[in-house]
Task: structure prediction
Amino acid sequence: MNKFNFPTAAPNGEIARVLLAFLATAGLFYVNIMPALVDGLIEGLGFSNRDAGMVGSANVYGAALGAFAAVFVVKRINWRLAAVALLIGLIVIDFASMLLKNPPALIATRFLHGSVGGMLVGIGFAVISRTSEVDRTFGYLLTIQFGLGGLGLMFLPSLVPTYGTTALFMSLIAFSVVTLLMLPFLAEYPPREQTVLAAGHDGNKKFIALALLATFLFQAANMGVYAFAIGVGRHAQLDMNFISSALGVGAWIAIVGSVLVILMSTRFGRMWPVGIAIVMTAASIWALHFSNIKPGGWETSVYLWSNIVWGIGWAFIISYLLGMCSEFDTTGQMAALGGFASKMGLASGPAVAAFIVGDDNYGLLLDVSVVALALCLIAMVVPARVLDTR
Result:
């Protein structure tokens, strides 16, 4: 029981991991429906590719700012009260976003939304770092993100022509409300006692820096393409209903990746599983060059299968990368800093992609993403090896 007299889930139990996953997802759920959001702004409000991409980027750059601020406060604040205030703030800003129709105002408002949400995610990551088997909790986080994100991608694009961008922002409000109702059932989660590795993290700054760099590069590479995934399909002259279905199915099947993390944890280490998964993810993104190939119908579409493999790899890899950042510290600061690196990547990807794509230059975008994933692989190896051997 907690001070609200609600029954609380066991701190390291499966129910608690699910509740914590919702908490850490609420401030950034728009990322999981980013293709629908970007395309909804283009189709529903007549935004250009660049304007719509910048709205998405502003949202995530704000999240990066909020996550960075969380690094300095997670050890000092009452995380539960802060989460309540931040969730209410997200609901209010999402309501305000429904009323805005021009790019500058929406960019500014979504930056504010991102700042509030980013702090919430940073706090959520910090609390998750205080659980046992952190990688597994992040696995639950990605399971929820891809599962509900897939649902959004399946249905939201078809609602925009009828309800406009209101449908997009109402889905975000609904998620925040549900998360708010879950908070009383979480335990207190005070900071854990320091482990030997965490106590010496000042001497491991280069390993932390490489883990953060790998996280940044991975998220930037993926989100840069993901934000324009609908455009990639349209450029290949695919039907919009097929594109939405492929993205939704890809997101749902991506849950396989996060479930593998839950089942495997660090039983096989981090370096080899993550390294192999990065290579497969890069290959699936490169294969999107051939999105127009459907030799035997939709079930053999390159676009569909690329999205499936890509989604599985994304859910699998980011769970481990965030877990790696968390393992260097037990107060939650490195977890929050990992959240900051993740948000910076998620924001920078669409921002750079918006300029690369220009007038439908999607091929170059795919190539740049593959190069970024190769750099991520190089950065990941050393910190993963250090954690595996220690």
In short: The radius of gyration is 20 Å. Residues 134-163 form the longest helix (30 residues).
